[in-house]
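Q: What does the predicted 3D structure of Coenzyme A biosynthesis bifunctional protein CoaBC look like?
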Amino acid sequence: AEHLLRSKTLKGKKALVSAGPTYEAIDPVRFIGNHSSGKMGFAIAEALYMQGAEVTLVTGPTHQQTAYAGIHVVPVVSAGDMYDACMAASPDAAVIVMTAAVADYRPVSVASNKIKKNAADWELKLTKNEDILLALGKQKKAGQFIAGFALETNNEREHALAKLQTKNADMIVLNSLNDEAAGFGVDTNQVTILHRSGEEKKIGLQSKKAVAEEIVSFIITHVHAKP
Ligand code: CTP
Ligand code: CA
């Protein structure tokens, strides 16, 4: 019966959301990852779905589950897998929201057997992962609305504005880790939306679900707006 409660605001529009961390394998038992819980991404996917969008949610490893069977969940592990899944789903997406905490680097090679401890120190060689949001921004279609997130601990606004520009995004959601009630694991969040027009909107402390709903309503009011 979930479809009966959905609004028709985004009916017929496709949305692509990335969520969670990525895991970059070192060997069969180890990986490089991060503390992303996936909560914001799942909440945004659900808010878009409840506004009527056809949602593809590309998610790294998390404990999140969605109650909405209509959301197309694509589970991935590494940044490379997430890149491929997002590229595949992006061409006909009207709204793209990249919330994933994508690992910036991966090991140059993945050992096929468990790396054994030995007397010497171990140096792990890393190489940079593809930036998914940047790639999507470069090939942005007319009418496509692209949102990113920025998790910052210092010079927050400046860093977020740089990301807005460099990645050719329409908006960036600034998440400040200086705030105890915001960020990893917790159920609440407090963010600032920076739109490419210069408009800014502060979204006060509330549940991640409520923050997601506010982000989605901001997207809806800006999705048709010209630059
Ligand atoms: N992002 C992405 N692919 C990557 C890295 C980041 O799609 N390989 C996206 C994130 O999902 C987020 C935005 O880019 O929407 C900003 O991510 P963030 O980690 O804050 O910024 P980076 O550009 O990676 O820069 P840094 O980590 O150095 O701050
Ligand atoms: Ca990063």
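A (community wiki): The structure tokens above were generated from the sequence. The chain is about 25% helix and 30% strand. The chain has a mean pLDDT of 94.
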